[in-house]
Amino acid sequence: MFPLPNGVAYNSYLINDEKTALLDTVDAAISAEYLENITHALNGRQLDYLVINHMEPDHCANIEEILRRYPSVKVIGNPKTFQFFRQYYTMDMSDNYIEVKEGQEICLGSHTLRFYMAPMVHWPEVMVTYETSKGILFSADAFGAFGAISGNIFADELEYDSYFLDEARRYYTNIVGRYGNQVQALFKKLSGLEINMICGLHGHLWRGDMIPYIMDKYDKWSKYLPEKKGVVLAYGSMYGNTENAVNALAVKLAQRGIKDIRVYDVSKTHPSYIISDIFKYSHVVFAAPTYNMNLYFPMDSLIRELAVLNISNRKVSLIGNHTWASAALKNMTEMISNMKNMEIVGTPIDIKSSLREDREGELDNLADAIYESMDD
Ligand SMILES: Cc1cc2nc3c(=O)[nH]c(=O)nc-3n(C[C@H](O)[C@H](O)[C@H](O)COP(=O)(O)O)c2cc1C
What we know:
Elements: E1 13-16, E2 20-23, H1 31-42, E3 49-51, H2 57-60, H3 63-69, E4 74-77, H4 79-88, E5 97-99, E6 105-107, E7 112-117, E8 127-131, E9 136-138, H5 160-176, H6 180-190, E10 197-199, E11 206-207, H7 210-222, E12 228-235, H8 241-255, E13 261-265, H9 271-280, E14 281-291, E15 294-295, H10 297-308, E16 315-322, H11 328-337, E17 343-344, E18 349-352, H12 360-373
Parallel strand pairs: 2-3, 3-4, 4-5, 9-10, 12-13, 12-14, 14-16, 16-17, 16-18
Antiparallel strand pairs: 1-2, 6-7, 7-8, 8-9, 10-11, 14-15
The chain binds flavin mononucleotide (FMN).
Residues 237-243, 289-293, 321-326, 353 line the site of flavin mononucleotide.
GO molecular function, one term: metal ion binding
Protein name: Flavodoxin-like domain-containing protein
InterPro entries: Flavodoxin/NO_synth, Flavoprotein-like_sf, Metallo-B-lactamas, ODP_dom, RibonucZ/Hydroxyglut_hydro, Rubredoxin-O_OxRdtase
């Protein structure tokens, strides 16, 4: 689904108390190592509980094998968890189920697990588990990130901001992005809890100062508010004329003193990266040609996906291109106007094949309008 140049981590947690509890499992790609790790960590003990916070296959591929190895294990989930289990897998584990409700607790000895439902963060069956003695939140896919873990497991042990944050944002915006309201609802539900550590199912673990750090990012992302001022210019181009106009505009923006300008060719860069940067920055320019009386399809697809992810509150400028009958600009304008609180900045430009010198003033005007709107 997504390019993973830095890999991805699948996290699963074992609590070794009077009772033993495993929280979620991992993807089929790493079953062998995972099962070896479980055997090692249990050191001959039985597994008493398996908590399924999230029934997505990348966390559930080993449930059946865990049941074969530990047939008396009690599997904790909610009615939807077990419904999805039956949809994906064939083993009958009805004798192992413990169905939990909101706020229900299970005591392991010195640790107690409390369950909170987190529907649509980002699947319907999702719940999170709060360990009450230490204040640890097992947050399912919330607070996850792309990027494998290289030794350090805590986000405070590395340069998170400069290296990992982009991949955390790309993960959130593309996977959870649509469900900002549900993320906010979960935050509200958990607001009274003392949370000392957050353990998600992908990427680094959060503790100390890194908890307010990532909560602040999540708050912005889930409210669809930009983190920074800056302009993403996303273009499609077959012969390079739209590309030329976008490059000229990028230089004009830089000449006006705008910082953080990001130019993307929608046919070359995977949309997940462009989407992530559009969530990050305040402004976006979409530029694309007309293609068989439609919007050039890679751009059409990008804007549709952004709409599905509920992107809102951005300042948008538009450039179309056509040779005999224009459709791209009209389609982009319609799509953007159907999104929430998207302000069109400057006068859209519809290039006729290539931007002639006598129309350069329009590009200057657009650059001025974008520059002026940066202060709003
Ligand atoms: C397959 C194809 C379909 C096209 N369809 C249209 C069209 O329906 N209407 C139009 O005005 N131009 C159409 N064009 C022309 C492009 O929109 C035009 O060449 C534009 O200037 C390309 O911009 P670019 O140089 O950035 O690729 C089409 C071009 C191609 C290759």
